Amino acid sequence: MKLLFIFTSIIVLSACSSKDEQFCKCLKAGEELNDFSSKLFSGEITSEKAEKLKSLKEVKKKECVDYQLMSGKEMLEKKASCKE
Question: Which of 14, 29, 30, 75 could form a disulfide with 63 if both were Cys (CB 3.0 to 4.6 A apart)?
């Protein structure tokens, strides 16, 4: 019985600390969009830059669709696992 409990605990703990690759992609897409957006403030906006901004928004929307209703606490935990 103790062995079963230990085995189950190990599985649960490893599942909780595992990296969510899709969330990490979402996080990266958001960072790329933010970086590009901040660069637009310091220069002229061309049609090429506008298209790139639109493309980055679409990528972020696609990558982050599963995380729209996630709590802030859970996001911070997942974000921390992406940096490990």
Answer: 29
